[in-house]
Amino acid sequence: MKIWLDGELVDETQAKISVFDHGLLYGDGVFEGLRFYNRRVFRLEEHIDRLFASAKAILLKMSWSREDVCRHVLETIRANDLDDGYVRLVVTRGTGGLGLNPHLCEKPSMFIIASTITLYPEECYREGMAVATCATRRPAPGALMPQVKSLNYLNNVMAKVEAIQAGAMEGVMLNEQGYVAECTGDNLFLIRDGVLCTPPVSDGALDGITRRVILELADQLDVPVREASLTRYDIFTADECFLTGSAAEVIPVASLDGREIGNACPGPFSERFLAAFRELTQTSGTPID
Ligand code: PMP
């Protein structure tokens, strides 16, 4: 596998980062996860815009233009000769001293991995997935801004462990007020009385690109949308629930904490959104060639 690292495509065995990199020492950096389908990258510019916004929010000065980064993503996919897959794009603060001060880091490092991915087994998409509520909370916006897709994922990792220990594949994370924020790596939607509901980003959700796509599709499918705070009660009593993410795509949720959601999984709305999403991924995007 070829990895793009600081301007060069190198073999994965040669793709190495310093132990003094602040991305490793402090989780000081930002990242993106993108998908490509049929040799086209889905929502490339939106991902790169979010990367630059995340970098700006943490005062990380990018050494590359948006156009450069887009070009390097395409180069990496081409170098690995893949038609469909996943791209992980990471920008770290770079090599510095052992202290926290990011101004002492020389320059950021960027690496791009293009690979295949199967996040959840296929039957989850057909029959729905079990999710569990995690004890670990989303940090308050005053602690770690939820919009910033930073390398600081330890609270999500701990929450994921709790979900797995509860026998689920994904975990629902609440914010400090007890409202649903999102899942450990996905945004959450539910359907109640024909209305698509999702927590606002201000409740601690990442401004997911797939979340945005679902909101656009809701408009096209004439499904009314309500962005409002949700509790576990709202999920327990919803007609349908599904999760979204670049890696997970659109995945129906069968149960929360062992309690079945709605009557059938996937429900009719989830199926419509999943089909419309798949159609879009197969027919749009930035060509790789
Ligand atoms: N929430 C979190 C915490 C995530 O890490 C992700 C991305 N894996 C998402 C939501 C979904 O975002 P996107 O649709 O942009 O991939």
UniProtKB/TrEMBL annotation:
Pathway: Amino-acid biosynthesis; L-isoleucine biosynthesis; L-isoleucine from 2-oxobutanoate: step 4/4; Amino-acid biosynthesis; L-leucine biosynthesis; L-leucine from 3-methyl-2-oxobutanoate: step 4/4; Amino-acid biosynthesis; L-valine biosynthesis; L-valine from pyruvate: step 4/4
Cofactor(s) this protein cannot do without: pyridoxal 5'-phosphate
Keywords attached to this entry: Amino-acid biosynthesis, Aminotransferase, Branched-chain amino acid biosynthesis, Pyridoxal phosphate, Transferase
Catalysis performed (reactions): L-leucine + 2-oxoglutarate = 4-methyl-2-oxopentanoate + L-glutamate; L-valine + 2-oxoglutarate = 3-methyl-2-oxobutanoate + L-glutamate; L-isoleucine + 2-oxoglutarate = (S)-3-methyl-2-oxopentanoate + L-glutamate
Source superkingdom: Bacteria
Amino-acid biosynthesis recorded as keyword: yes
GO terms, molecular function: transaminase activity
E.C. number: 2.6.1.42
Enzyme class: transferase
Keyword Transferase found: yes
InterPro entries per the UniProt record, alphabetical: Aminotrans_IV, Aminotrans_IV_CS, Aminotransferase-like, B_amino_transI, BCAT-like_C, BCAT-like_N, Class-IV_PLP-Dep_Aminotrnsfr
Any Pfam family the entry gives: Aminotran_4
Function noted in UniProt: Acts on leucine, isoleucine and valine.
NCBIfam families: ilvE_I, PRK08320.1
Family: Belongs to the class-IV pyridoxal-phosphate-dependent aminotransferase family.
The protein's name in its UniProt record: Branched-chain-amino-acid aminotransferase
Lineage: Bacteria, Pseudomonadati, Verrucomicrobiota, Verrucomicrobiia, Verrucomicrobiales
